[in-house]
Amino acid sequence: MLEKFGAHKTVTSQIIKLREEITDVTNQIGDLEANLQADGDPASTLNKALAELRKINDQRAARTQEWTTEIERLSSGKIKAVVEIGGDTSEIRDAVDLIASKTGSQEATRLRELEGALASDSVWNVLDRLRTECLSLLYWRQMGAASGEKQPQCADLMKILGDTERIRTSLTERMDTSRVEAIAAAVPRPEITLSYSDGSREISFEKASEGQRAAALLFMLLEQPGGPLIVDQPEGDLDNRIIADLTNKLHSAKQNRQLIFASHNANIVVNGSSELVGHLDVKENGERQFECAGAIDQPSVCKVITSTMEGGEKAFKDRQDKYGY
Predict the structure, then answer these.
(1) What is the rounded average pLDDT of the residues 89-99?
(2) Domain check: are 177 and 221 in the same one?
(3) Contact partners, residue 259, CB within 8 Å, separation at least 6
């Protein structure tokens, strides 16, 4: 009888202890639920953040389009700019590379499959599916596996990474918040293609000559107001056809800012209607000084332009005779 009483007492003690543990766990669950309610719905918070991210990305695309239009205007049409909204997917490639890190996924396979996915559907749809699959795999790893839930297949993600058992196992073991964050924050960026236009054809800006690129940038500078602009011998990079366009631009550009050119080209000085011309010469001791300076219609200034820039009156007349003008 005493033995039964002792066993009953032991069981009763165990039951009391278990009830106390259940009470503690229940209280912990209640505290966690209260904290979750206070923090709000994580999925709702994520969706709001993603919507704001896309809104800002759209604003960036619109500003980029405005910027390229301004570039064309400032360059007087010498630069043509084409914007492909969402054409730069480098952030998405980087995010997929991070997800695939240390899983055995092959880079060539990832790149080919990702390009195929982006070509067959909108970039946002692809991102939504990849983010959803990464989230579901992270949840399963942290919660679902212990409760016996079936592991998500993640068809789109696995197709891009390479659907092998080794890659799937490694990905499941390594899926974490940093990988989810990377694909959630990745966005397509606008891609800009610049070309140089000479009126009859367009050349990729990277393949344009130094003179053509210099001309486009110089025209942009001349279109903008500001402080004095000093340009040193632009004829070193520009042919006379472009200089003819430049001299036409100078008439309006000098209304916006003071222009100072150092040049040996008579077209810039004469056709650009210079308001003050200074002729520099070198003294015997090597110092530079102004030999003469004044308005372009002063005889002394005309003489030095003819002798220094045209090669003298005879050279000027010889060219006139040869051209037949």
Answers:
(1) 94
(2) no
(3) 222, 228, 229, 231, 250, 253
What range defines the domain where residue 140 resides? 90-187
Separation in Å, CA 238 to CA 71, 90, 196: 20, 37, 14
For residue 143, is pLDDT > 60? yes
Asked if residue 104 is part of any domain, the answer here is: yes
280 Rama sector, left if φ>0, alpha if ψ -120 to 50, beta otherwise: beta
- In this predicted model, what pLDDT tens digit does every residue of 9-44 receive, in sequence order? 565 566 566 666 656 656 665 665 566 555 555 667
**Does 238 lie in the same domain as 181?**
no
Provide the greatest CA pair distance for the chain: 141
Per-residue pLDDT tens for 229-277? Answer: 998 888 887 788 888 888 888 888 888 889 999 888 888 888 888 888 8
Calpha distance 112→161 (Å, rounded)? 10
pLDDT above 90: percentage of residues in the chain: 20
Residues constituting the chain: 325
Phi, psi of 297 (to 5 degrees): -90, 5
Checking if the pLDDT of 283 tops 50, the result is: yes
Rounded distance between C-alpha atoms, residue 192 and residue 279, angstroms: 44
- Our count of domains for the chain comes to 2
Which pLDDT belongs to residue 148? 72
Give the CATH number for residue 217: 3.40.50.300
Q: Is 159 left (phi over 0), alpha (psi -120 to 50) or beta?
A: alpha
Helices 123-139 & 107-120 angle (0-180, nearest 10): 120
